[in-house]
Amino acid sequence: MKKNFAEVLGTFILVFFGCGSAVLMGDFIGFHGIAVAFGLSIVAAAYGIGAISGAHLNPAVSLGVMLAGRMSAGEFIAYAVSQIIGATLGALAIYVIASGSDDFTVAANGLGQNGFGPGNNGEYGLMAALLFEFIATFVFVTVILGATQASAPAAMAGLAIGLTLTGIHLVGINVTGVSVNPARSIGPALFVGGAALGQLWVFIVAPLAGGALAGIVHAAGLTAADENA
């Protein structure tokens, strides 16, 4: 239960920092500031709860970890459920806070939900969204698996992972708003509804596929250090 609670709290932090920065401060800090906020949320959670649960905060990460042989299927399911709960609570907190402004409406301002096509940032199409989310998640989970393997310097893992997520956002916010995390997408979409829910499958399927491939490649030893070297 302690691990599950840590994943709820950590994913709450991710959504509250990242999506909260977009909703509450987006007009002031822009894409660069939002990218940094998402990266800092990972750093905060990694060093705050990483020793308890590993601070996955993301079903795609947990799937990659499972396929790399580091956790069981049962643990993966429990982590994924906890992450979705945390993301939903994070989106709810943002919604309640943002509603304190007379100028805020979910329809006009959103909750940092992911999306593509007309009306979404660069208006990229479906294939661009799928490809970006798949590649970005593969890279993200590969970095996580590499940074947390036994031979890696443990003290630097949280920083490396956070900076990677920042970089991913700097590349892709204009494409999809950046998911690389089904839980992060589910939370806001549940409150926004409409197109956010209609497009949600993209931000579940593509990240899970990218995370799965990263786990399989790591298990095959292609991205894992030779511990006997």
UniProtKB/TrEMBL annotation:
Matches recorded under PROSITE patterns: MIP, PROKAR_LIPOPROTEIN
Record's subcellular location: Cell membrane
Record GO terms (molecular function): water channel activity
GO CC annotations on file: plasma membrane
Entry's transmembrane regions: 36-55, 76-98, 124-147, 159-180, 200-225
SUPFAM superfamilies named among the record's database cross-references: Aquaporin-like
Keywords recorded for this protein, A-Z: Cell membrane, Membrane, Transmembrane, Transmembrane helix, Transport
Membrane topology type: Multi-pass membrane protein
Primary location: membrane
Family that this chain belongs to: Belongs to the MIP/aquaporin (TC 1.A.8) family.
Protein name: Aquaporin Z 2
Biological source species: Pseudoruegeria aquimaris
